[in-house]
Structures are given as structure tokens and as C-alpha cells.
Amino acid sequence: MGELIGIIGASGSGKSTLLQTILEEVDPMEGSVDVRGVVSYASQDTWFFSDSIRNNILFGKAMNRQKYHEVIKVCALEHDLSVLPFGDGTLVGEQGAMLSGGQKARISLARAIYRDADIYLLDDPLSAVDAHVAQHIFNECIVKYLKDKCVILVTHQVQYLKNVPRVYQLNEGKLCGLNKSKELQPSTFRVVKNIEQVSDAQTHLESLKNDEEPSEVKEHRSTGSTFKKIYGVYFRAGGNWLVTSVILFAFVLVQYCATCIEFFLSHWVQEHEWFETESERMLISHNCIYIYSGLLLCLVLVTITATLAFVHYCMMASKNLHNSILGKIIDATMTFFNNHPSGRILNRFSKDIGNVDEFVPLSLLTVIVTFLNLVAMFVTICIMNYWMILPTDVRVGNIGLALIQLFQIELIQYAMKVWSDLETQMTSVERVNDYTELTPEIQSGQVTPPQSWPSNGNIDFNKISMKYAQNGPFVLYNVSFKTQAGEKIGIVGRTGAGKTFIVSALFRLYDFDGSITIDEVDSKSISLNDLRSKIAIIPQDPVLFLGTLRKNLDLFDEFDDSQLWSALEDVKLKDTLSDLPSGLDTMILEGGENFSVGQKQLFCLVRAMLRNVKIVVMDEATANVDLSSDSIIQATIRRRFRQCTVITIAHRLDTVMDSDKILVLESGRVVEFDTPDALLQNVNGFFYNYVKKSDQFG
After folding, report:
1. How confident is the model at residue 213 (pLDDT cuts 50, 70, 90)?
2. Domains in the chain, please, with CATH?
């Protein structure tokens, strides 16, 4: 206990897998793992649930105010929480969409640290944060706060491991010790210059805001009867009013045939009593049998026809409702996904669509048949009573038919039950219909750009102001800058400065004021599909789909194997994938769980390389790869994208130091934009202070 162990290694060497083996998430093929004590784990892939930041940190644990504030302090979250509109009561979406990558990493770390445990497994918590913040977390949290705990730290930031007693390196899954005096030198691992956290946070614990906290977006709940609107929605999904009327008429015809058979049986009994001789009765019986058989055949044919038509009608209703909700979800705004957990959305496609497929048709059919039976019963009773009141002979058949119908009076109670069941099942139709009324992304574009657009890659941001939420603060304010064709632009700034929102504005993920012009075309004047298909991005959170590696790299089969292998070789993944039995046909698990975060980011880089576009955006694309791989990737980008406009967002200054221009953001505003040399000559500038305070420049 009370020991700190460092784990380093290249991307894909097995660092995260080692921690998962300790957690017993991965079964070892040989040997065993003996873990004694409670384990707490901070994963490299940050995760959140829709609630306040406070509850995401507590994660069901009881609030210990003193401990909570201490964890906030050692995880360097004081300043970040002080500038958020509701402090630690601020709501975050399921993926923490309103938070920067560094903030998400620190909140995930705080969640793991707040939990009382004997062993802490920290999977690269320092890569997504600035140098000053990383230094603070390492010294205050890992070294001091956890000094009495067993801590296993996986990191690419090797400069922090110089005084760590035990450091191990993983190489292709093999663990070996290091001679730190020789192997943790800048000649082997570059000491990375990072942007320092420039803030006015006080050294003492800042008070967390306790303003009126926002409430989570609740599910819509309707009250009262759903008859008029929801039934209309379902019937329109099944077909137009004429189709619905034809289906209803078919069931009326079925009931009419059934009632006719009952009347015929009553008449048959009466005719049988009317004739006195046996021969006359036999003749009538033979004729009635033929008539009765014909009526039964008609009933069977009409019933089959009505049932098949009803089944097709309900299938069309389910299909149209599903397609409608799917289209609306695909076109929904980012705000919708930030406010609605994926579980809530999936519930519409699973339980609710399942009810529409299975239970609504059965309930609807039962209600139609039951109520038609009731109508037929009352009509029959009225007719029989009318005949019995007339001054004519009262026949036995009429009395028997009337009594039989009266015995079915219990249908009234059953009808109320099936009607109530249908109302309950129609709630699923209402829930599905709620999502068919979502406001789609603004498709203001009416201009169709040329097929070759953009041919150069000139970008002009003109007075861009953007809010994450309608009533929230500005995340970008009056941002203006221009890039020329083929320029390499680096965007830097402290955590939460608004760097990623530059990308959001470029892709029109949120509404904004101002204009963005790409090769003389206003991005608002063209469709979202035309805009987004012409820009490649390597995101901060890489995305892989369930399927083969080939499909993840080339979804529409536009490239042959040689092109795929060539791109993989450029990012140094060819040898790794060649060793896999299935090669490009290797199955990728959901979320790419069978590959490291660094490898997943490299796959996203390969996608961008294959698309051959003129504008490429890299949002912290190399944050989770080792420094050696970072150098290789940067060289590959300079070679493969030399004719493209490349916008790179990075914490590591080495990643952007060779850019043509550097944009410095502070609190959503552009404070500097010039060449690196020009910015370094301004001794009072932000960028100069970043470089001056970096580890490289002492």
C-alpha cells in the first residue's frame, strides 16, 4: 500500500488492457491476477449520465462536504466550476457535451478519487489537460492526496515519472522494467510543451455556486383523453381516410354475415316446426344446409379478407411511424441529444415501437370486434322484441335468438376492459408521435455548390457569436479570422476557452450569429449535407461503429485494399493489423472496445486521408497517443495534407508550432492570430506566456 507505479508504452501496446485485466474485465489466457482490496478506476474514455456535475462526481455516494471540496481542489476543478452558470449544479448531457475534453477528464478523475478505495487505476488522466493542470493533478492528487494508496498510473506524459519509484513499459503486450536514468530522457521521449492554465483561481478553496439549479429535461407526459389526436396519427400512418373506412367496412361486413347466419338459424328452426310431415321437413333441412354452408363460406372468406387487410394496414402504420421517428431523430439538433439520454431515445425504438408492432393491432382488433358484436347484439334484441310485440304468432326461434343475445350482455363489461387496454397501448403511439414533432436542424441552404467545391479551402470567420444553450452565456463571441488555401492553422487556449466550439460552428452543429464563408460560399446558404460532406474531421472523441474494420474505414466501398493498406501504413498501423487473423475484416466491437483510444484516433485519421477533401479539422486528435506516434502523425499530416487547409486544435505546443498561423482563444474570444514567430516576439502576448511557462522553456 502507499505505492505509485507508472505504466508507459506506445499506442496499442496493452496499457488499458492491463488495467482491465486487474479489473477482471478481461480474462487472462495464462496465469492469474490476485487483487486484494477495493478498486477505483478512472477510464481513458470519459463517460457521464444526464445529471449535475455534482451527482456525476458523487455517483451515488453520500455527500461529505469537506472531502468533496478537497477532491474538487486536487483535481483542479475550482476555476472551471466557478465560471459555469450553476457551478457544480450545472447539468451535463449524457456525453458531457457542454464540457471540454480536459474538464471531462478531470470530472471522471474526481469521481474515481471521491470513492474510498485501496487501489486506484488511472488510465491516462493527464493527456487531455494543460501542463499547469497536469502538474497540479500529479502533485496534489496522485502524489499527495493518494500517498497512502496503491496507485497505478498509465500515461504518455513521461516527464512526471522521473521521481516515481517503479515505472514499467509495455511493448506489444510485454511488461518490462525501465532504467529511468537512461530511458526517461528527452532523447527517447520528448518533453512536451503544453499550454499552461492561465486563470485567476485562488489557491484557497473557492466556494461552489449554489444558485437555483436547472432541472433536467423531463419526458413529455400528456394528460386526458388521447382519442382525437393520437388515433388520428395512427390511422393516417396506416393509410388515408378512404383506406381506414374500407377496413372498418370490411369488419362491419364480417359482423353482418355472422348476424345473418344467426337469423338464418332462427328461421331454420321455425321452418322445421311449420311443416308437419317428415318428408317436408327433410326437404327443408337439405335446402337449409346448403344455404347455411354458403353463408359460412361467405363469412370465412370475408373474415380472411378483412383480417389480411387489417394486418397489412397495421404493418404500414408501424412502418410509417418507425420511419417517421427515425427521420426526425437523424435530423434532430445537437441540443436535443444533449438533453435526452440515449436510453430514453432507444426506449422509443424498442419498447414503444414494439408495442405499436405487437400489442396495438391486437388491442385495436379486439375493440373493433367487441363493439361490433355489441351493436349487433342490441340490434338483434330490438328486432326480436319488435316482432314479439306485434300481434302475430310468437315463434320459438325468435325467442331463442333474443335470449341468446341477452346472455351476451357481459360483453359490455368486457368492452370497457378492452377499450381501457387499447388506451394504455396507444400511449406508445403518443410517445412515438412526440419524437415525430421534433424541430429539425435548420436547413436554410438553397444554394447547390459545384461538385468541385471547395476547390481551394479558403475560410473566413466573420463576427461569429454562439451560445451552447438559448439562455446560456456566449461560448464564442465576435470571433473573426481568415485562412488562406493550404494554410495550417493551430488553435490553442486553455481548457474551456472555446476551441472545440470553433469546430461546432464550422460544421453548423449549433445556430450562430455571423457568417462563415468557404471559397466565397456562405456556409448557411448550402445544405448541411453538402457542407459536412466536404470537411473531414478527426474528433477529440473518436467514433467507431459495430462492424468490420473495412466498413469503418470505407463505409461505401469506394477504395480498394491497396489504398486502405497504404493509408494504414502511413499511420504505422499496417504491421499491427497484418498480424490479426482477419486483417481488414476484423470485427470491431461496439465503440471500438477492442482497440485503444490512440488506435481509434488513428483510424479516424485514416478516414480523413481517404476522403481527399480540401479542409481537414483535427480536434485534439493526438492527445491519447504517445509522443513518438505523435511525431509520426504530424509528419504524415504534413505530407498527405500539404494541399489542404488544416485546422488543428491541440494542448501540446509541439503539435502546432510548425503551423503557418496560430489562433489563441481566451473565454470564447480571439485574443491573438498571427504566425508563431510574430506571436513569440510579443513578450506581453498570451502565446508568448504559454511558451515561456511551458516545461521546455523553463
Report:
1. low
2. 4-183 (3.40.50.300), 227-436 (1.20.1560.10), 459-697 (3.40.50.300)
